[in-house]
Every structure is written in C-alpha cells, then in structure tokens.
Design a protein that fits this description.
Keywords: Transcription, Transcription regulation. Helices cover about 45% and strands about 15% of the residues. The strands form two sheets. Strands 3, 4, 5, 6, 7, 8, 9, 10 and 11 form a nine-stranded mixed β-sheet that branches. Strands 1-2 form a two-stranded antiparallel sheet. It is built from ten helices and eleven strands. It has about 300 residues and is an alpha/beta fold.
Amino acid sequence: MDVVAACRAFVHVSERGSFTVGAAAARMSQSVASRRVAALEKHLGGQLFDRTHRRAVLTRFGRDVLPAARRLVRAADDLVLEAEAARRGPVRIAVPGTCSTGALARLAAAARGHGILLEPRTAAPRERAELVRTRQVRAALVAVAQEEAEWSVPLGLAGRDDPGVRRLHVETLRVGRTDTGPPRRIWLGPEDDVPHVRDRMARLCDAVGLRPAQLAVAADLASAAAEVLCSKDLLLCSPAQAGELGLRWCPVGGVELGRGFTVAAGEPEDAERIRTHLTGAVADCLGAHTPPGGGSREAG
C-alpha cells in the first residue's frame, strides 16, 4: 500500500467533509479515494470515517491520527520540492546576518552570471558552521580569525555623535571619580560575539581599566543600535553598518579589529566555485576587503 497516497486521500476528504470533493482536490477519482482510505483503515487497524452519515465525518480514531497524516503528507511534499531544488543544482549558502537584502541580491545576481544559482540564508556565526556540517546548506561564510581569513571586514566604534578624533581610544570611556552619569558602553552584535573579536575587545577594555559591564553583547544588531542611538554608547561595527544606521564611525586606537571570513562547504568543489568566481562579489556583500593574495582567484 502507498501510505503517502492513502494519507493524502484521507487528509483531503477529512478537510472537505466529502469523498467526492476531497478526491477532486487530491486529483483522484472518488473510487480511488475510497479504496485508499479503506486500505489505510485496514493498515492502521481502525475506522477513520463514520459511514452512517451522508458526509465524511471523522471518527474519534480518525481525529486522533489526522495530525500525523497531515505531517506525513507535508513531509512528502517537502521531499519533492527538495528533490526538484537539488536537480536544479542551487548552492544554498549560509551568510552573516549583517549582509543587507540589497547586498545579498547583488551577490546572487553576480553568481547567476557564472551559472551558479545561489540561495543565501542568513544565520548566526555558530549556526553557519553547523548548517554546513549537517548538510542543511552546501556552503557557508564562516567566521574565523583575521589571519585565517579570505575576506576581512574592518571594525571600529560608531556612535550618534561625531567623535571629533581620527581614532577613538577606548580609555576615553573610563569612568572618572567626578563622573555622575551612567558609564558609556561598547555594544557587540551577534556577529561579533565570537572569541577572536569578543575576547580581544574584552582584553583591551580590561587593560585600560574599563568596567566589565561596559562591554555588552546584544541579542541582535537592532537592539544594540537602538541602545547607541538613544545614548552616548558605542557600537562595534563596520563602516558600512555605521552608514546604514546613521552613526559616526571611527577606527579604534591602538589596535586593528576586524571580522574574518572564509568559505566552508560539504563538497570542496562548491567552495572552489565560490572562490573562483565570486571572491569580489562576496567581499562587496560583506563590506570587506580581501587579504593579500585573496583576490587572485577572482575570475570576473
């Protein structure tokens, strides 16, 4: 017995209360729907419909098993869609949530110019690596230390006011004895809540005497930006992000900070296609530059 086909008939008939209408919705004849429901009842060992009524009325047993039947039908439909997508050969790629919709659209358009159907999916740093490992995506732009990076995004501090300096030194945020207001904080978004950025920033803050609470990690970038926009706090971000948020950006004095990215993939050829054809497009999407030698593989 085709359990999926039988469940499909069962679900459509139950939703419409009629074997005739339900069978038509399932694109089968009434006789086929009746046979499949009867076969499913035999397979499950219980009656699904009360046949003493003119309409298709679910029995208690039918009501109990209907949710599972729906899930099976949905799963079968999802499988067909996934198989169709696999035949088309799309490259699902996990990307940072800091990439704007416009930047992702331009990246996908550039990929099509090289015959690559790219399907970006935003995800947090830890999630991106896991999505590749579990083969839920074919590739990901994963966060790495700058010395391991194929793309590097400069980071600095941004606030709502012009800092009036070319480089902002973190020690200027130190709380003095005569200060009465709340301490100014440095906010990190989820993309920078990774050891090679967060820990380095924490060591810098500690070295110049900032309080531990002056370095804060937000649940999302919007929340961090909101804190900065309504206070004198600062956001660790890229120049492009500062521009989008209407903030004044400045490099950090005494240290070079940046996000590093490399491409990881379940199959080496997927990673190589991205490196070969899309190095520059990925850099533009990230708001990054490529470290020395990183752009040599760009083919156009």
